[in-house]
Amino acid sequence: MTQDRALPLARFKVLDLTRARAGPTCVRQLVDWGAQAIKIEMPGGRAGDGMGGNRHGFDFQNLHRNKKAMTLNLKHPEGVAIFKRLVRDADVVVENYRPDVKYRLGIDYETLRAINPRLVYGSISGFGQEGPYRDRPGVDQIAQGMGGLMSITGLPGQGPVRVGIPISDLCAGIFLAQGILVALLEREVTGEGKWVSTSLLEAMISMLDFQAARWTMCKEVPRQAGNNHPTGIPTGVFETKDGLINIAAAGDDLYRRFCRAIGREDLLSDPRFATSQARSANRDALMALLMPITRQKTSAEWIKLLNEAGVPCGPIYTIDQVFADPQVQFLGMAQTVHSPQLGDLSLVAHPVSMNGQRPPLRSAAPELGQDNEEILTALGYSKAEIEDLARRGVI
C-alpha cells in the first residue's frame, strides 16, 4: 500500500518467528513504522500455543497487526528450505524460542548468516542465550520475581506483588527492537548484519533503574513503599473528599509550591520536613499530617488547584476512564483498523509521533496462512507446487 511505502522502515523485510508476547512486541515496533513482516506459523495452527489467545480476540489483534502471514512447517526439511529462500532477501529475523530450538531446527544465526551476511537476527529468551539458566522456560511473572520487581511492588509488609502488565515481556520486546534498529544502522557502514539478543531477566533488571542502582552503588536493598514514591517525598496517593488522587511534590521547589497551594507554609520551616532528607526520615508523619488536609476538597478541586500552582496532580483512572479522558482522546491513543472478518476494530495506537504524526494502523492481524500463495509465488513456486506443499503438510 502507498502508506506503507511512505513510512520510515518500509524498505526492511522482517521474518517473524515469534510467539507469546515479548517477540511479537518487538516486531510490532518495526511493523508499526512500516517494516514488511511475514508472520510464520505452523500449518493448521496450534491451540493454546501462546500466540496471543484467540486469533479474533483483542490480544492477538493488538499484537499482530500490520503483518502478512504464512504457514510453514520448520520441522520439515522442505519447510526449512523455503524459510532459507525467504532469508536470502530478508533484512531481519526475530525469534523467541528457547535458545536450543533454533539450532535443532537449523535456523540459527550462523547458519542463516552464511546465506545472507547482511541479516540482522534478533533473539529473546527467558534468561539469556548462555549461562546456567539458558534452557529454562521463561515467562513474564518468573522474570518479575527473579528480577526483583515483585519485592518492591505493593504495600509495606504485604509480600511480593506482581505488576499489572507483563512488563518484562513488553520491555524485552522494545529493547530488542531498539537493538535491531542499531544493528541496521551499523549495517549501513559495515555491510554486515549482527545477532542481537536480550532476555526477560535482563530487561527486567534494566527497568529497575534507580532501584537497582541503590543496590549496585550504595548497597541499599529497596523495600516496598506502596503508593508512595520510594525516594521522592511527598509523592503518592492522597484521599480527597470524594475519592483518591496522585500528587507529586518531591524536591524542594515542588514542595514549596505544594505547601503554599494548600495554605500550609509553616511546613516549609518545620525541621521535620524542611529538607528532602528530613521528609524522607519523617515520611509517615508528613503523610499523616497532609491526609486530613487533602480530605477537605474534592478530587477535581485539588487537581485544578495544584496543577495551576505547578504541582503535578492527577486522577486515578480505570481503563475505561483512561480512554474517555479528553487529553487521551486528543492524542488519539485508540486507532481504528478494518478487519475483513471482524469489521472495524479499535486498537492501541503506537506511542511515538514524528512531526506530530503517529504511524497509522494499516491492517488487522492476518488470518492463518492468508498470504501463502502470494509469498510462495514470489519465490517461484507454481500453483500446483503450492498445492502439493499444502497436501504434504509443509505449509
Provide structural commentary:
The protein is elongated. It has helices at residues 2-5, 22-32, 58-63, 77-88, 101-105, 109-115, 140-146, 167-190, 200-208, 210-218, 252-261, 266-269, 276-281, 283-294, 299-308, 319-324, 326-331, 372-378, 383-391, and strands spanning 13-16, 36-41, 68-71, 92-95, 120-125, 195-199, 235-239, 244-248, 313-315, 334-339, 343-348. It is α/β, with parallel strands linked by helices. Helix content is 42%, strand content 14%. The protein folds into 2 domains: 2-207 and 351-391, Rossmann fold (3-Layer(aba) Sandwich); 235-316, formyl-coa transferase, domain 3 (2-Layer Sandwich), CATH 3.30.1540.10. The chain is built from 19 helices and 11 strands. A hairpin with a 3-residue loop joins β10 and β11 (343-348).
Keywords:
Rossmann fold, 6-stranded parallel beta sheet, 2 domains, 395 residues, alpha/beta, single chain, formyl-coa transferase, domain 3
- The number of strands is 11
The string of secondary-structure elements, in order, is HEHEHEHEHHEHHEHHEEHHHHHEHHEEHH
- From the coordinates shown, what is the CATH architecture of the largest domain? 3-Layer(aba) Sandwich
SS content category: alpha/beta
Q: Span between N and C termini?
A: 26 Å
**Within the largest sheet, what's the order of strands?**
3-2-1-4-5-6
How many domains, as an integer?
A: 2
| CATH fold call of the largest domain | Rossmann fold
Mean pLDDT: 96
How many DSSP helices? 19
Query: Using only CA atoms, what is the Rg?
Result: 25 Å
What is the assigned CATH homologous superfamily of the largest domain? Crotonobetainyl-coa:carnitine coa-transferase, domain 1
Largest sheet: 6 strands, parallel
Reading off the top of the CATH hierarchy, the class of the largest domain is best stated as Alpha Beta
Q: What shape does the CA trace take?
A: elongated
* Share of β-strand residues: 5-15%
Query: Low-confidence segments, ≥5 residues, pLDDT <50?
Result: none
The residue fraction in helices comes out at 40-55%
